[in-house]
UniProtKB/TrEMBL annotation:
<dbReference type="GO" id="GO:0046872">
    <property type="term" value="F:metal ion binding"/>
</dbReference>
<feature type="binding site">
    <location>
        <begin position="32"/>
        <end position="39"/>
    </location>
    <ligand>
        <name>ATP</name>
    </ligand>
</feature>
<dbReference type="GO" id="GO:0005524">
    <property type="term" value="F:ATP binding"/>
</dbReference>
<dbReference type="GO" id="GO:0004714">
    <property type="term" value="F:transmembrane receptor protein tyrosine kinase activity"/>
</dbReference>
<keyword id="KW-0067">ATP-binding</keyword>
<dbReference type="GO" id="GO:0043235">
    <property type="term" value="C:receptor complex"/>
</dbReference>
<feature type="active site" description="Proton acceptor">
    <location>
        <position position="273"/>
    </location>
</feature>
<keyword id="KW-1015">Disulfide bond</keyword>
<feature type="binding site">
    <location>
        <position position="59"/>
    </location>
    <ligand>
        <name>ATP</name>
    </ligand>
</feature>
<keyword id="KW-0472">Membrane</keyword>
<keyword id="KW-0547">Nucleotide-binding</keyword>
<keyword id="KW-1133">Transmembrane helix</keyword>
<feature type="binding site">
    <location>
        <position position="291"/>
    </location>
    <ligand>
        <name>Mg(2+)</name>
    </ligand>
</feature>
<keyword id="KW-0393">Immunoglobulin domain</keyword>
<feature type="binding site">
    <location>
        <position position="277"/>
    </location>
    <ligand>
        <name>ATP</name>
    </ligand>
</feature>
<feature type="domain" description="Protein kinase">
    <location>
        <begin position="25"/>
        <end position="405"/>
    </location>
</feature>
<dbReference type="GO" id="GO:0007169">
    <property type="term" value="P:cell surface receptor protein tyrosine kinase signaling pathway"/>
</dbReference>
Amino acid sequence: SELGIEDQAELLPYDRKWEFPITNLKLGKQLGAGAFGVVCKGQAKGIKPEEEITTVAVKMVKRNAEDSCMRALVSELKIMAHLGKHLNVLNLLGACTKNVTKKELLVIVEYCKYGNIHNYLYRNRKDFINQIDPVTGNLDWNIGIEKLERTLSIASSKSCSQMKYAEHFYLRKDSNRSLLTNNDKRNDNLSCTGAQTDTAEVNMSPKVEDDTGDDYVVTSSAGSSIHLEWRTNYKPDYKGSVGPICTEDLIIWAFQVARGMEYLTSRKVLHGDLAARNILLTYDNVVKICDFGLAKNIYHNDQYKMKSNCPLPIKWMAIEAIRDRVFSTQSDVWAFGIVLWELFSLARMPYPGMQADERLYARLVEGYRMESPEYATQEIYKVMLDCWSLNPLDRPSFTELHQKIGCMLEEGI
Ligand code: ADE
């Protein structure tokens, strides 16, 4: 590994625009450690134009790590730079690559306040609110409403917006700080409720889709400009407390993961290690897919054969991926099914009591699949089974998954 970052041309180019001066970065406590390296909290000066200091997460390899770890981090950096911005993908903010030949590489990404959803679910499972009606087996949305009210009462009298999904937008005060008023209702394309405060629910028609995660600016008939931010959730943070997790949150997270994966697919990237441990939770119930250490750009070839020295997440892998190490977007869909199982079991280890070995593989080939986890609806379990179809082509696409799970959320409106 005497090569500089530009020379490690096995993958994508690295654009110097990402280079961040290491002197403007202050490292803090360790947030996590994986097979490849360490992630620390950090403070970065001037990394975002809109604020002086930004709390960030910084990924680096361990000092005594093997060269393969360094290559994985270089690859991750290039994949993230290639991916671009999406609300449900952990975004790259910058990198310090000056001393990459001396095994010093810092990859600076967004900081996600609540860490990975596996640990978050595990820590908070005792307070979980099961919204499934024990008689009908269907979701009881009223339980969710009670729970939302509870969350809002924590948020005192502040009116918070309810964001359900794509057609709903989060409204913010316009730049001259005047508050939204119900006058905005006069705009045929924009209706809002609860607009007395700085947030409100809006309904846009026609539907506007946005994959960038950027804010919209819409001018209402009242003449004031309104910033619309894409949201996929409805549970606002208040003083860092988001209240107990409920079934609807699990569906909202699943929906966002499907959206993020749909975006990865559109950028011709396969993840290769999709699992609850690689999904981060941040403000406002937003989740972000992270850890692109095993990710591959599949622009020229829609499959990728993992090298034989690469340690693999067997329990998240599709049958064909275990058999011959061939990964594809369809094997990511299988892993998405396992993520659903992790979510709706509140972070249990998949295939409880079983080892990740040849016997597991043999049973999968025979047609064995995990039972429904305790907190899944029949509809959700059906989605898991579809993701675990033997034939990769029989599995749903991430677009279909995003739509199907979106419909489940719509039922609750
Ligand atoms: N752990 C690993 N990556 C993280 C991130 N970006 N934010 C918070 N915790 C993390």
